[in-house]
């Protein structure tokens, strides 16, 4: 195998598998960012969604129930951030970090308490999310990968234009952006900022929960302790890089998904797994460095 063989038709499929959980969580983080809540709790929300999705799928033998439960679990878990920061005026950064720590400990505890296993829970009774192939289109060279996804994969890609329309072409989107940019002005227009902020945070948790469901029931069919493995943090960086714009979020998530997929493929060349797994995080650090430089230049120009 040569280096060019890494870039074959299957690579796009791997990129999309890596992309979908990050994209779903990042779209959720984007909604929270639009209303002025910086949500760095996406990591914990993904993990909670993954565990609850696997548990529900195992006990009901139905992947759809698992997906719904994962979404609801993520939304409920996000209430800690929503209620704490919006109504109790807590620091969202502190709350979100606590949520991430809580999610790791709680899922590890429940894994032992419910399934009596440690580390990995894998069972034939878990009903994984199926892949829906669109006839003819799925057989097209290269782009056929876009037509052979799980239902959550199609949903994630569809949400990008839908959220763009909602944010920039509807009164609801105007209110959401107004609450995040000028909350006092929005309040004078009869908009309750707290209600919109809480709703956006709950939607953020629901989307992150769906990302967890895709990760645990779509990409693999199992739950592993701390299986979110930094994807929530990568989603946060995607939101920052895209400046909370849906199309930009897709582009940033695609970048990280490609880094993850190409790292996995490079293992066939004998590179250590620890090195190839670091690919997305190296990209994340580079993005943060570039963003800090851009922010510093913008601030210096504003002060000049």
TrEMBL record:
The chain crosses the membrane at residues 12-31, 38-59, 65-86, 93-115, 142-167, 233-258, 278-295. The keyword Cell membrane applies. It is found in: Cell membrane. GO terms for molecular function: transmembrane transporter activity. It is a multi-pass membrane protein. Pfam families: BPD_transp_2 (PF02653). Keywords: Cell membrane, Membrane, Transmembrane, Transmembrane helix. It comes from the Bacteria. The keyword Nuclease does not apply. This is ABC transporter permease. It comes from Leucobacter triazinivorans.
